[in-house]
Amino acid sequence: MGRYEVFMVMNSGMTRDTLKTLVRNIVSVVQEQSGTVKNIVNYGEQALPIRMKRHGIKATKGRYLLMEVVHDVQKVQRLTELMKLEVGLLRFKVMRIDDIGHQMRREGRKLF
In angstroms, what CA-CA distances link 1 with 92, 94, 103? Predict the structure, then answer.
């Protein structure tokens, strides 16, 4: 099992209930596939650096969310396939966390 960060930009036009439902769906998919969600950080609504369009929705603002997940590689690939279908997600990125780099970032030190 590897550790991953899932960074998501969601449509800011979503209601709070819709946002919660979307996050719960993603968390439930991870848990059904025997993964665990360690942490979820909501960075709130911010202006996007560029206008984004996905699933026919144009957006200039987005809600930023960071999720730390422990999961298998094959199952993370399945998770990304499911996230591509979510209408409320404008963009997302799944990144593997190496333990040394992650620890150094937490402490505020630079890798190089």
Answer: 21, 15, 18
| 3 state DSSP class of 72 | coil
In contact, 19 and 42? CB cutoff 8 Å: no
Amino acid at 64: Y
Number of helical H runs and strand E runs in the chain:
3, 4
Where do runs of H (alpha helix) occur along the chain? 16-32, 73-84, 99-107
Asked if residues 66 and 94 have their Cβ atoms less than 8 Å apart, the reply is no
CA distance 18 to 25: 10
Give per-residue pLDDT as tens, 13-39: 888 898 899 999 999 989 998 889 999
Side-chain-side CA neighbours of 56 within 13 Å: the count stands at: 1
Average pLDDT, the chain: 85
Query: pLDDT at position 57, please?
Result: 78
